[in-house]
Amino acid sequence: ERGAAGSATAVAHPNIALIKYWGKRDEGLVLPWTSSLSMTLDVFPTTTRVRLESGSGHDTVALNGVPATGETLRRVTAFLQLVRERAGSGRRAVVETHNTVPTGAGLASSASGFAALAVAAAAVYGLGLDAGGLSRLARRGSGSASRSVFGGFAVWHAGADTGTAAEADLGSYAEPVPAADLDPALVVAVVDAGPKTVSSREAMRRTVDTSPLFGPWAVSGKDDLAEMRAALRRGDIDAVGEIAERNALGMHATMLAARPAVRYLSPATVTVLDSVLRLRRDGIAAYATMDAGPNVKVLCRRADAERVAGAVRDAVPGGTVLVAGPGPGARLLGEGA
Ligand code: PMV
Which of 50, 196, 249, 269 is the most exposed, fewest CB within 10 Å of its CB? Predict the structure, then answer.
């Protein structure tokens, strides 16, 4: 093993997609059907420490101090196995991760989680990856994690769907997106912090396999992405918001048309969407996006964020509402013995 340290600790933040990733063309390699674009947040960091133990045996994983089991343990172990194969290492790992966001609630816990794990594991096993390489690696843990390697706005390239598997893997990574100074905020409305009933993995599979709306949405997403990039370049928050909102509603439409339907949106979601419409009617630039859960993220100007948060709080009195801004990319906090 090249320069393997005893332990490494990394921190990463979640990201929220303004152009969504929904559907894999290769489940094993986590290659998406479409390119996506996101904003990394400055809230809800995940901090992950990976320590190598001598000898083989099982990896152990603790999430907020609680030993992970089942699907979480299986996913983390499979990810570490990939890193070990690349490093030519057989050493087992002890992983301790601290998440400040509810897990599995459509709040991008897997994005910050696998971005932090990728950075820490790559360091401790001595993979010597650049940012693009870390993004490709993080992608294998969770697609959206590829984008959390970068701060601010990031685009995840789907990559060409011709060529060998190795070429496809190389072509699918995230990178920063040039943007004029938008001074954006995302008002996050947590209307339900409980774990989702259908995993995004299963929901994507069902959508791709059965939804008659998936193809058209994926096609229109190409235009959405091009228009989004242009809107970010000129700093046009209304255009950014409009494109993000229609792309997200379209994604949910594909799921609603799946057989059987996948519905993450709840009555509270719709109540928040109504409050966003009222804000727009009052002349405030506010636009909504939703992921694999009922929670709503409202894009607006920083200067309007408190007003937007107030309106959303009034709409869902039981919910938790917080204001996020653009956050930093994943980074190594330290390496130790
Ligand atoms: O990275 P995953 O497998 O958790 O998928 C996330 C998909 C969405 O959050 C719904 C959209 C996205 O692009 O982040």
Answer: 249
